Amino acid sequence: MADIMSSRCVALLLLVSVAAQAASGVTDGLLPNGNFEQGPAKSELNGTRVTGKNSIPNWEISGFVEYIGSGQQLDDMILPVPGGAWAVRLGNDATIRQQLSVTRRGYYTITFAAARTCAQADTLNVSAGPESGVLPIQTVYTSSGWDSYCWTFKARHSTVWLSIHHPGHEDDPACGPLIDSIAIKTLRSPPRPKGNMLRNGDFEEGPFIFPNTPWGVLVPPMMEDVHSPLPGWMIMSDTKVVKYVDSPHHVVPHGSYAVELVAGRETALVQEVSTTPGKWYALSFSVGDAGNGCQESMIVEAYAARSRMQVPYSSRGTGGSKRARLEFAAVDKVTRVVLQSDNHHMKHDGTLCGPVVDDVSLVSVRKHAARRLL
Ligand SMILES: *[C@@H]1O[C@H](CO)[C@@H](O)[C@H](O)[C@H]1NC(C)=O
Ligand SMILES: *[C@@H]1O[C@H](CO)[C@@H](O)[C@H](O)[C@H]1NC(C)=O
């Protein structure tokens, strides 16, 4: 009798907790089994290849998916796994997906770690419901081989399938990227602070960064600002990124986050803002280094309307920053504010690096002296 009672209790508790989970949806952080520490049974593996569609708890797979242990030899390389001891490798036309409970019309950012193995020009197609984005992952930015990437979607329904697909057309069907540590974060629309015409000028709102990943998160090319993991900002580039860095692992000029320009002139950080033609504005920002050993002579270039300026910064790689200010007269109703690094920089260990920008603000100014120049 006691047994029956207690098992009923357990069943009821389970029901209640399942219902609570469904109602509250995802929470910020690692997805269920997002680091693949729970793996397939031995019987569902052929060598490293996962054979069953539902063999990896919480995930559904299709195509050539392998379950890879940390330190396992892959072709001619050995990669330690960042999140625990296991990761998956997506071969040609392979997909992993998981169903998420989300808030309809909410914005979410996915962060995951990827490491390229033998394929050359690799991309990943990340999708959630009807929205998808193709992330170029051919450049390795971090010397460990692992880079974290992010991608944002707007939830069209209260449940969505999040999937990561590797199109892959390699001769070796197993050649593809390793994936690990998949997390989610609800994006807030940052309020426009008083006295700043820019949104998220301090970069305090952005993608999830794992407390144990010291290398920041790469924000891929993003030609629109609504779906940007860095709300307000666009990343203009063909295939390159900017790096979102956090204060626990980097020196940031202001607040808890900043952006490191790691791809030279191949990437521009851009925000569009409403302006009045003929009126004068002042763009101010911090230029510095992330204190990550990037010891280089750097130049950040800023553009707005017909004005531009170069801000030289001599980095000792130990952290530090200075302010810069660019005044310009708007020529259109919308002005693009652009920040760019003039050069590529690399640390001794091969990690790509560059100047950090932070605390960007735009205000309108009265300008008497300059009027004479017009
Ligand atoms: C395992 O994979 C090999 C190579 O693709 C194949 O020949 C073999 O039949 C597979 N074994 C099982 C049990 O499916
Ligand atoms: C990416 O995946 C989505 C969902 O499967 C698909 O609709 C879209 O066409 C794919 N994009 C590319 C460029 O293959």
TrEMBL record:
<dbReference type="InterPro" id="IPR006946">
    <property type="entry name" value="DGR2-like_dom"/>
</dbReference>
<feature type="domain" description="DUF642">
    <location>
        <begin position="197"/>
        <end position="362"/>
    </location>
</feature>
<keyword id="KW-0325">Glycoprotein</keyword>
<keyword id="KW-0134">Cell wall</keyword>
<protein>
    <recommendedName>
        <fullName>DUF642 domain-containing protein</fullName>
    </recommendedName>
</protein>
<dbReference type="InterPro" id="IPR008979">
    <property type="entry name" value="Galactose-bd-like_sf"/>
</dbReference>
<keyword id="KW-0964">Secreted</keyword>
<feature type="signal peptide">
    <location>
        <begin position="1"/>
        <end position="25"/>
    </location>
</feature>
<dbReference type="Pfam" id="PF04862">
    <property type="entry name" value="DUF642"/>
</dbReference>
<feature type="domain" description="DUF642">
    <location>
        <begin position="29"/>
        <end position="185"/>
    </location>
</feature>
<keyword id="KW-0732">Signal</keyword>
<dbReference type="InterPro" id="IPR052437">
    <property type="entry name" value="Pectin_Meth_Modulator"/>
</dbReference>
